Amino acid sequence: MNNLDRTTRVFLDTNTAWENYTPLEVTQGRQAKPDFIGWSGLAPTNYLIKHTIGLPINAPKNEITWRINEMGRHVIEGLRFNGQGEAMNSVDLIANKRAELTDNIDIQCRQTFTLNIITQLAKKSYQVNCQSKTNIVFKHNL
Known about the structure:
The longest helix has 12 residues, at 3-14. 16% of the residues lie in helices and 34% in strands. The protein is built from two helices and eight strands. The chain is of the alpha+beta class. The protein folds into two domains: 3-41, no CATH class; 56-139. The strands form two sheets. It has a four-stranded mixed β-sheet, with no helix packed on it. A four-stranded antiparallel β-sheet has the order 3-4-5-8, with no helix packed on it.
């Protein structure tokens, strides 16, 4: 059983996330604080960002790829990558709810980066300049 399965089972049993987990049992660890994520939150947070929201990040290339598969509104705010301290980029990406095959994406950021958008029907790259709030209307190629 993998780490994500164990943490999910403990969460469902206890209705909270824990600071740490016991490696040999499906339970919270010793001296674990409830409602505190700590190091144990890295795997589920990484999975959420990369696979559920669909945002693999390539910091050395200064790019984010967003695989948009949902029609409902989905958001990530304060996504930090590529740098340290004030030099680190902070990105907000908002895909608004839509009823057709057009994606409205609102973007705010500190530094210029490349945003690759991939859907089932199209792929396009944008250089986001971060001068002001950016809105991209992504039309699918039909």
